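Researcher: Structure for this, please.
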Amino acid sequence: MALPMPTKRRSTFVQSPADACTPPDTSSASEDEGSLRRQAALSAALHQSLQNAESWINRSIQGSSTSSSASSTLSHGEGKGTSGTLADVFANTRIENFSIPPDVTATTSSTSSSARPATIDLPPSGIVKGTHKGSNRSSLMDTADGVPVSSRVSTKIQQLLNTLKRPKRPPLKEFFVDDFEEIVEVPQPDPNQPKPEGRQMTPVKGEPLGVVCNWPPALEAALQRWGTTQAKCPCLTALDVTGKPVYTLTYGKLWSRSLKLAYTLLNKLGTKNEPVLKPGDRVALVYPNNDPVMFMVAFYGCLLAEVIPVPIEDAGGQQIGFLLGSCGITLALTTEVCLKGLPKTQNGEIVQFKGWPRLKWVVTDSKYLSKSPKDWQPNISTAGTEPAYIEYKTSKEGSVMGVTVSRIAMLSHCQALSQACNYSEGETIVNVLDFKKDAGLWHGMLTNVMNKLHTLSVPYSVMKTCPLSWVQRVHTHKAKVALVKCRDLHWAMMAHRDQRDVSLSSLRMLIVTDGANPWSVSSCDAFLSLFQSHGLKPEAICPCATSPEAMTVAIRRPGVPGAPLPGRAILSMNGLSYGVIRVNTEDKNSALTVQDVGHVMPGGMMCIVKPDGSPQLCKTDEIGEICVSSRTGGMMYYGLAGVTKNTFEVIPVNSAGSPVGDVPFVRSGLLGFVGPGSLVFVVGKIDGLLTVSGRRHNADDIVATGLAVESIKTVYRGRIAVFSVSVFYDERIVVVAEQRPDASEEDSFQWMSRVLQAIDSIHQVGVYCLALVPANTLPKTPLGGIHLSQTKQHFLEGSLHPCNILMCPHTCVTNLPKPRQKQPGVGPASVMVGNLVAGKRIAQAAGRDLGQIEDNDLVRKHQFLTEVLQWRAQATPDHTLFLLLNAKGTPVCTATCLQLHKRAERIASVLYDKGHLNAGDNVVLLYPPGIELIAAFYGCLYAGCIPVTVRPPHAQNLTATLPTVRMIVDVSKAACILTTQTLMRLLKSRDAAAAVDVKTWPTIIDTDDLPRKRLPQIYKPPTPEMLAYLDFSVSTTGMLTGVKMSHSAVNALCRAIKLQCELYSSRQIAICLDPYCGLGFTLWCLCSVYSGHQSILIPPMELESNLFLWLSTVSQYKIRDTFCSYSVMELCTKGLGNQVEVLKARGINLSCVRTCVVVAEERPRISLTQSFSKLFKDIGLSSRAVSTTFGSRVNVAICLQGTSGPDPTTVYVDLKSLRHDRVRLVERGAPQSLLLSESGKILPGVKVIIVNPETKGPLGDSHLGEIWVNSPHTASGYYTIYDNESLQADHFNTRLSFGDAAQTLWARTGYLGFVRRTELTAASGDRHDALYVVGALDETLELRGLRYHPIDIETSVSRTHRSIAECAVFTWTNLLVVVVELCGCEQEALDLVPLVTNVVLEEHYLIVGVVVVVDPGVIPINSRGEKQRMHLRDSFLADQLDPIYVAYNM
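Model: Predicted structure, token format:
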């Protein structure tokens, strides 16, 4: 078998200890390990078909219909198996592609996909220019007006909508039409599928219920009769833990103790005037499974007192609480021992269980009961329709309901069982079943008393230690009848070697109560073949079918010795999946052999109706739900009238829909048909029905297939659960099995891949998820079976903790919509005309006009920032411009206008003297955030050099951070590096030498101790178009780009910010940002000098040692305007979120803040800004204060909220339309909606337009397109080693292909967004146009012809489980890869795989190819707090992530 093994960290999956010698622990029909013959046959056939597994796996890689899912980790490269393994396939892909990794984010030039070393913030050496990936993508056009054309809307209405002032938004959730049809590829029915051809069935009658002269008028009367006339006869024998009889209850004792209890319940619990119980009240019976005697007394005591017993399982289940509540139960009966075992509070009261009503507990041990007076007699009336008892049942969803059985139904059922089983007085029966419900109660407690039988009750705990005990009891007591399940047959066969001398010749009936399980036939056959030599008669085996609602549906009567045994039905699985009976002739593998469960019960009538929709009678060759009409079924679900009607009062209808007769039937919940000779066949349960793509499969059948695939080595005690989950408009099959503690990874994996193949070939259905969990960890039912609904709940919550998992979404999910085909040949002109015709605006917006707002003389006089600084040094020499704080909030350095000027002069003279530099040389400034950096910047300008600010390397992480420094130094061709002494030593250190070549650094000058030397003259550039500085930055896609900023651009930028924020010399602003590039650099180094305001500088890294620093500074200095980054905001939100009281105690108050601006180059992180606002609202922060900026490489400041103008607006847009590059506004709460916020107001002098990135034609405002910008402060181009003119022209000086604005020169931001006109008024008095940024063009993923933004997928994934700390997505070949950081324990790693796959499929209609689970902190995040997805991708391909687990969803 050549699937790759999932390697994972060895620490992770610790198997829970399993009891070593216990027999298979399967107590529910779905876990029947006894299907030995079926297994043998299947195994042989499977062995044949699985021989060639290699080719099957290889087919699956190429995407055949049977593809499976292979999980593996890339972490340690353990490619196990032979040359054909998946691991090898992946490895080869990796090796071939590593020189140029396959780039699926866009169709780009080969340069941009060359390999990048995988370190943080490190760009590839080859690419320096800012190429925009995706700048040549083909068009994403759509209908001319941008509204999806919908056939459901008439053209008139469409015209009306278009002419209305605002487009109508789709209404709120309850009015939404689910656009299921648009989304899903609806599978067409197979034309060759079998269809039923028989005539409509007619209801089948059982034999008449014979009138026996001595049948009692009520069951209580039978007890009275035997208790008074046959007092010494044994009624019930209980066994101890070793299987030895420990106590026998006689009929006399049962009668007298039940009487005492009935008297106590009615007369001794309350006062005479206010009794606690009245006849008709419901009472819970809480008795352990090893105490049938106490239970029987309690049950009959309740019947005699005319209160309604509700037997329940172990105390504490929340769903049982629902049952008790719906039945209005306030009293519980139990034993002294059981009561002592219940959890207590400190003062000795019994704990109030979650979801339970308050209960009064009554102990029913004899010593606590009062003897009834001689003259007291219970009221025993003739049985009527009043309730006798309530039996609980658990529905498929896990809710517990009470089936009410009337006294007449209880009596009639006993009569029907007595007649069908031919019971006679004094017979001994052995009961291995739960005596509190179903057949165990009906035969062992009720029919028993009616016929004066003697029941031996074998508890479940004995079966665990001595599986043969029931066979020994039959032998010792010469029992005539035994009540068992398949599992008991199986256990007895397993333990058979221990006992040679047992005889089963006394048995006339071996009632197999889960004969409704389709695989019981093989258990019965195997048991018979083993025990026939011990006297077991073939005709004694009597399967029966039961359900809580219909009680006994059918039972095989004991046969006549020598008569031929009933035949078997061999059915086609394919036919069954379409609900049709077809005899299977060809393929043994896909046949189901079913034995009959006998005839309809005496006095009953049966029909088969369609399982869903109206109860239409089936045809004779059709599978349907078995319905029974007789006096012996349940009457209702207690307290649930609505559900009751659909189940207990069914009137079948014919194909025309008219009722057939007027007799109500009860739905049994069993699926089957009536065969020849009126024999009843059951093929499954409604609860186990999995309907996938319109075909029906039975969970039990799939379990049996799993068991047949050599499960002994892998599956612990045959414990397999199968259920379906609803994902993306269809049911998906999930198989969960417990793994043996000693199973090797290899065996398990081999078993999993074979099971997938077996289910595919036998049932023709794909498995969505196959998971193995450690032994004994699946939730159990009270008798040890698998609790299916809880298992499903754990799976959906992500708390199953699998140790192995395979997901196969590619195989199963066949209803994805067809990939989008782009419309070719729609030119920009036709789009524009279409927009005009539809009344759509061209999407453009502009800030205020700079020309009209004339500043003071300053602007006209000084074109250069150096002149402004000199002027300030003369005019206001002592005015403080900068104040630098340390972690304690203390000013460590200040700079007045004069001090800054003097310091800059000294640095300029050092550059002349030491550096021997000429005007126009580039100088790298390598400083920590502070005033020294600012002085060095102006020093360079004074000397005529071009400054390049660079983030200093991190001393603790030189290998990751120093190469970026080296690259910028090389790319910028720097003639000299200005820095501090400490950093200078670091650059030349031995550690640095290990990371880069330190011998070839340009001249390094430290500026710590400068000589006091006058600068002869300050350089003045000949024109403002000359270069002022270079701005280098690494984009999130790992691209290093440097842009050129001219003096005129600097001047225009500072002026626009001054106007927008109303900055002047008496103002103070606080800045907590990195000062190395973009708007952060501008605010830190340039604005104060231009506008004269005071900047309080807070280095962001100081917050790591003092989280309060930024907020306390703002509060202390009463700052009105503050600027920060997302990283700073996130630090405060996470770190101070629960410390608002501490902030108040420290006197921190933010009511002074007018604007708190996040500087960013991305879509606004609205959830972060909103939670920040909400958290700090309590310390005075105004809800209107927080806003964001937007800038890009070509223009660092396009939007900035500023002080005047309307507040930022938010809109909800439809995510599905967005993927088609269309913008459709929806209401809050709409499904698939995305909340977007405006990125502040457009700065003065800035114009933006939305353009189709492929055709370069302008778009209407209902389209998503690239944001193009025109402004005096746009950068003048990329700084590259070799000036690539075409790229410069494309990104900086480009024209529209069509339209009025075609003469303007625009710069392309590389970001997608849209413009919306709002109802608000802008400062100019016109309506305000809002710009919304959606995401970077080169980050988008093109999948299935649609455009996805990684952040949207990541947001969905992060919500799925509390242990996901961070998440990032990228594409590899054509697979979507999702990387999640796990912050919980490693056991949860595999829980995330199905959750991630589900949510991406549900919300984004994409199949995840690979899920990688890693440790916290693995996803690289740059200094601006942006995820570096391309670095992550490189690390993944280079196998450097050391993942906890990698799952390949095949």
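Researcher: Any notable elements?
Model: The radius of gyration is 40 Å. The mean pLDDT is 84.
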